[in-house]
Amino acid sequence: MTLGFSLKRFGAVLYKEFIQMRRDRITFGMMIGLPIIQLFLFGFAINADPRNLPTLVELGDNGPLSRAVISGMQNSSYFAFKGTVMGVGEGEEALRRGTANFVVVIPEDFERDVVRGDKPEILVAADASDPSATGGAVAALSGIVSVAIAETLTGPLAQQAGSAPFAMVVHREYNPEGRTSTNIVPGLLAIILSMTMVMITAVAIVKETERGTMEMLIATPVKPLEVMLGKILPYVFVGYVQTAVFLAAASLVFGVPFEGSVWAFFLGFNLFIVVNLALGFLISTAAKSQMQAMQLSFFTILPSILLSGFMFPFAGMPGWAQFIGQAVPATHFLRVVRKVMLKGGAVADVTGELWALLAILLVISAIAMLRYRQTLD
């Protein structure tokens, strides 16, 4: 026995490891690809101070001061005015559906009341279900409008600008206390189901391949679709148990309300579970071992956390990141959960998200069955 260090033996071990690394292409791709994806996502896509938030205005006065208020808000880059609403009901509908983050109400005779020194109120209804998305804009709002009005009041009216000639009233809808848990806890359901459903399905199928029992299944006259449904449906029951426990904890421990339609939640929840199980089935057709199945499953979790709007405001991401985020199932289920639980949404309010989940399911299922047939060949 010798304790001498041999460069030759060390080189042989090193060479062997590089060969094994090259042969395990999936793991090698993960080691190279994952850091690059993280770099671009954190560097370009993540923005904790979102700008250009969709805003509607209810214009009761179309005078120069009202136009100055709107122009000042738009020039701040926090707000992007998308149109007008004709009443409180239309504004509330836009906030509930998520087509607007803010509705600005400028009252009638706003300009006259400013000139008289009556201090009229500008009402801003903000969708506070995601406090991090609207917090920065709300904090900057009063200063933005004050500057815009001060620049417009000139001549004899200039003295009005120095005494705050208006009052800014902000109504935080759906989460008036701005509690982070009210926003995060419903979103966690999407992340937890994504992590467990995808990984459980992928590992369970690959485990059969490793044990050789999959060959017996392939030898039977069972069709690929029948195998796919038979493998994933038992885990739907697991998803039901997880969701029941989650909803009970959200209500009893964190005090998160459930304001909307149970039927809307039920439809979105079932679609999301099946999408994730189909994704797990797809991963199982690419992985050759349980370790690879777990690695690929984690690979799908990253966009679910970063691009779905769970951790960072979806509206704050650049266009290309939002485009990719639309293909992430968690993005749409997250919107379903928040709309139903926090905003009192019904089926009509989440129809677009349900169609998106169905489209993603059809695409993933088609690819999974094609790859499964190739596996049979």
Please characterize this protein's 3D structure.
The protein has 15 helices and five strands. It is α/β, with parallel strands linked by helices and 377 residues long. α3 (64-75) links the parallel β1 (53-59) and β2. The model has no long low-confidence stretch (mean pLDDT 83).
What's the helix and strand layout?
Layout: H1 7-23, H2 25-45, E1 53-59, H3 64-75, E2 79-84, H4 88-97, E3 102-106, H5 110-116, E4 121-127, H6 131-152, H7 158-161, E5 167-173, H8 180-211, H9 213-219, H10 224-252, H11 262-286, H12 290-306, H13 319-325, H14 329-343, H15 351-376
Parallel strand pairs: 1-2, 1-3, 4-5
Antiparallel strand pairs: 3-4
Helix pairs in contact: 2-12, 3-6, 8-10, 8-11, 8-12, 8-14, 10-11, 11-14, 11-15, 14-15
Structural class: alpha/beta
Spatial strand order of the main sheet: 2-1-3-4-5
Strand residue percentage? 5-15%
Q: Estimate percent helicity.
A: 55-70%
Q: Which word captures the global form? A: elongated
Question: Gist?
Answer:
By secondary structure, the chain is α/β, with parallel strands linked by helices.
List keywords for this structure.
15 helices; five-stranded mixed beta sheet; alpha/beta; 377 residues
